[in-house]
Write a structure and sequence with these properties.
Blueprint: E1 8-23, E2 29-49, E3 54-56, H1 69-81, E4 86-92, H2 103-118, H3 125-135, H4 139-144, E5 148-152, E6 156-159, E7 166-170, H5 178-183, H6 209-215, H7 217-226, E8 233-234, E9 241-245, H8 248-256, E10 264-270
Helix pairs in contact: 1-2, 1-3, 2-3, 6-7
Length: about 280
């Protein structure tokens, strides 16, 4: 298959736990978390252009194309490498904005990985991660491409191997701004750090969850409903919440019991980004 004819997946991520362990002098929060990908996400197609322009064919409502992370990622790769080719980017969105599933970051990472190949710019993963970090703290983990224990502002990785699992993910009808959560005076910022080797499935909690629930009661309501099936947690800064199942059938039975006013999906956990296999 010609690479220009290929679909480039941009999977969701969930945070199996997320602790705020400190804060740097520049205001950035120091985190510890485990990222895991889901077999569910957005999809990117790239179409070559002869005029050198970078065009997003599918702009999001209310988001100027020039500020979209997909366009910014393409521009950043061009600036770093001198690539001169143009491209039209077709993004099929399934992941919600402000959902804590890393949709924008995943889209940016997939754009970098796809165009690095299509434009033959020859950057390795470390180079792409450096470009990605300037776009957002979660972009590098998608380029790294493995389930991992992340530290710092989310750019230091120690790979882990969570057991196979399926997840029921609920999507409350609210968008939670990440900055609002991190600016909250009630956010705990002193959870004790652990060594990556001490992480185990089921460990920890999400320090951002209490703040998001207080500001957005819909998040709390969805977590409460999920709690009947196990240890329900919020992903990232919210709003999406998830609970783990050992098998697909149990997860789908829970999805079938979802109240009519709630939305969600079932997905398998993935420990490798699908673009690592291409």
């Amino acid at each position: 298959m010609n690479d220009w004819d290929r679909d480039w997946p941009a999977p969701a991520k969930i945070n199996l736990f997320l602790h705020v362990v400190g804060r740097r002098s520049d205001g950035y929060h120091l985190l510890q978390t485990v990222f895991r990908f889901l077999d569910f996400g957005d999809n990117l197609r790239c179409e070559p252009r002869g005029d050198g322009r970078i065009v997003l064919a599918t702009p999001l409502p209310g988001v100027p194309p020039e500020t979209d992370l997909v366009v910014r990622a393409a521009q950043a790769l061009r600036a770093a490498t001198g690539a001169g080719a143009g491209v039209t980017l077709h993004l099929e969105k399934r992941l919600p904005m402000g959902g804590g599933l890393g949709g924008g970051s995943s889209d940016a990472a997939t754009t970098l990985m796809a165009l690095n190949r299509l434009w033959r710019t020859g950057l390795g993963s470390p180079g792409l991660q450096r470009i990605g970090l300037a776009l957002g703290a979660d972009v590098p983990v998608f380029i790294h491409g493995l389930a991992t224990f992340a530290e710092g502002v989310g750019e230091h990785f120690t790979d882990v191997g969570p057991p196979p699992a399926w997840y029921l993910v609920l999507v409350p009808g609210v968008a939670v701004p990440t900055q609002e959560i991190f600016r909250s005076p009630t956010l705990r910022r002193d959870t004790p750090a652990i060594a990556p080797a001490d992480w185990h499935p089921g460990f920890g909690h999400n320090d951002l969850e209490a703040v998001a629930c207080a500001l957005y009661p819909e998040v709390a309501r969805h977590l409460e409903w999920l709690g009947q099936y196990g240890d329900a947690r919020m992903s990232g800064s919210g709003a999406c919440c998830f609970v783990e199942f050992a098998g697909e059938s149990a997860a789908r039975m829970a999805l079938a019991a979802l109240p009519a006013e709630m939305r969600g999906f079932v997905a398998a956990g993935m420990d490798r980004h699908p673009l690592l296999l291409i």
